[in-house]
Amino acid sequence: MIHPEPSWDHHVPLPKLGPLYSRLLVALVSLICFINSYDGDFVFDDSEAILNNKDLNPDTPLSNIWKNDFWGSNLSSNSSHKSYRPLTVLTFRLNYLLAGGLYPVGFHVLNIGLHCVISALMIDVFATLIGGLACDGTAKRLGHVPKASLLAALFFAAHPVHTESVAGIVGRADLLCALFFQLSFLSYCRAFQGEGMKSDKFSVSWIVVSLLLCAVAMLCKEQGITVLGVNGVFDILVICNLDIYELTHKLVSELLKRLIIRLALLLFCGSLLLYARWRIMGTGPPAFTEVDNPASFAENVFLRIVNYNYYYSLNAWLLLCPWWLCFDWSMGCVPLIKSAGDWRIVWLLLLWACLIGLIKQALCSPDSSKRRTLTFGLVLLVIPFLPASNLFFRVGFVIAERVLYLSTAGYCLVLAYAGAHCCCRWRKHKVAAMLALLGMNVVRCAHRSQQWTSEQSLFTSALSVCPLNAKVHYNVGKNLADHGNQSAAIKYYREAVRLHPKYVHAMNNLGNILKEKNELQEAEELLSTAVHIQPDFAAAWMNLGIVQNSLKKFDKAEQSYWNAIKFRKKYPDCYYNLGRLYAELDRHVDALNAWRNATMLKSDHSLAWNNMVILLDNTGNLAQAELIGKEALKILPKDHTIMFSLANVLGKQQKYKESEGFFLNALKINPNAASCHGNLAVLYHRWGKLDLAKKHYELSLKLDPKAPGTNENYNMLKRKLEQRQRTAG
User: Fold this and answer.
1) What is the rounded CA–CA span in Å between residue 694 and residue 685?
2) What would the 3-class secondary structure string for 402-426 be?
3) Is residue 70 classed as helix, strand or coil in its secondary structure?
4) Residue 595 pLDDT more than 80?
5) Residue 610: CA count within 13 A, CB half-sphere
6) What is the pLDDT of residues 153-166, one digit of tens each?
7) What SS3 class is residue 74?
8) Which residues lie closer than 8 Å to 447 by C-beta, 6 or more apart?
9) PANTHER family annotated for this entry (predicted)?
10) What's the distance, Cα to Cα, between the start and end of the chain in Å?
């Protein structure tokens, strides 16, 4: 298995470094590219995969990560995304445990560290692909391509398209998958190394290790299974050193028989993993909508194929020129090609012209090292991308930069060869040119990773890249609304609805803001449209009920609330709002039942508990109000609003000492509550502790000079004190 040293390694304008220094250099470049994302927030998909994922909580049984998908939903659910990545979720859980909570720094540091390790390991992967399994007489591995593999690894380390995978915590799945992909490939290569090892002999144990690592990669992300294809091609072209034109003459050779055995083993294990994956999914593949992947819903097969190929050309452009990067490419960001006369067809023709040219060079070049380099460049470029290609199943995105993480390795290998070839022809300024290219990529990585540190910068950066993307405008609006700038958010929500007239989530959020601004008629129209488009949209039904309640359309509001509960059985907030409606209609029993349902579904629903106490107080059911208040405080022992309401109830029952205790505890938690000081003053007034009453009346009026009734009570107290002084005099 001794291969001649590829001649193009000498033309690479880099110093010849030892293995350790090469790895350190690549890791350092990786660190420089993405280090400024270490203190970023949880952004975009991190909310669902991490912040809202109960599987990360140490109190959740560890076994749940094997039953649920990446987002924490049960795999058997029809709403599940079916992305089964339990080992990735396990690393998130470890981050949670080590940090003692959901602190993003630890998550980001691990992502950056993983990318550094992967980039350093790429030197070994590239060296093996370019130089083969070269051994000396003692079976010691020879480093035939130190400069070529280093250059390709540097290009990989500093490619800006990696930003989503590294700076976005959800990209951990791609990083872990890539790491075990590399280890699986290198283990497969290790099966053919060793003393006296020849191409017709191999270590079964190392192949088993490779297959196990493939399974681990697949448990990090589904894309991991594609390493079997890379291993198979490597076996054919390097281990067996077969030429395409010679295959027909070696059909009966012993070498080919052993190759067929190994390929059959890879195929069998791959099929077994796919079958296991299919069984785990339970209810079949996930159901994606036309918004997620419009090309896959095109009725015309020709247009479907054309649009898929156009997507491929856009992915290729992101590798070639990674300056237009976006966190999301759906919802109109890439308009469909709807006719053969669309000028964009030129791009896919150009893509296939380039691919055919590379394939021709990979197959027909008289230079064996060139054939091997280009072949493996194409193999690494194409095979890991296949799960995202729509060829075997529909995927839930148009373009996703994170799925290019492994494919970038193939591109970087071809780029390194092209760069060395150019340096061979144009020797002048070759070092400056390479450094300039690497430098631009490093700067772009640093800038892009900075954009990923917060949702505001991430979402606004997409406006110039995908101005037609309704989701981009929606996310900008949502971020503004979450930070209290609702007026600015309206503009972006309106634009999102304009770009995508069936965007029910944008309608719902816009309707909520208009409701807060008391623009109830338009809010009702928007929310009514949302539930008409998506009848099972429970949140929109509830919000519509709130608006209708404000418009005094009580019957319609009640029906809207029940529709929300129909489509979301466990909806405590909806029961709470339904209780408010019943209370307004003086249907006290129905109100209490609704609020009780809210607390049964969500035991710490403070508003529902407090409203029950207040309603029972107002209707004279003081004993029951006391019981409910004390029951609530067992669950919410530091809730000052419930303490306040319970203290009022106890005061009316002349349980002054107990009432005083709850008032004082409430004031410890919220000392600036004017109403609490005022009601405590009333309690002391009734109790006969007039000096304390005076003190708290004055505190209440200091905090809120216009507090209703407090001035009158205070004046009454002052007259009483004056009368007492005169009597004493």
Assistant:
1) 8
2) HHHCCHHHHHHHHHHHHHHHHHHHC
3) coil
4) yes
5) 14
6) 999 999 999 999 99
7) strand
8) none
9) PROTEIN O-MANNOSYL-TRANSFERASE TMTC4 (PTHR44227:SF3), PTHR44227
10) 117
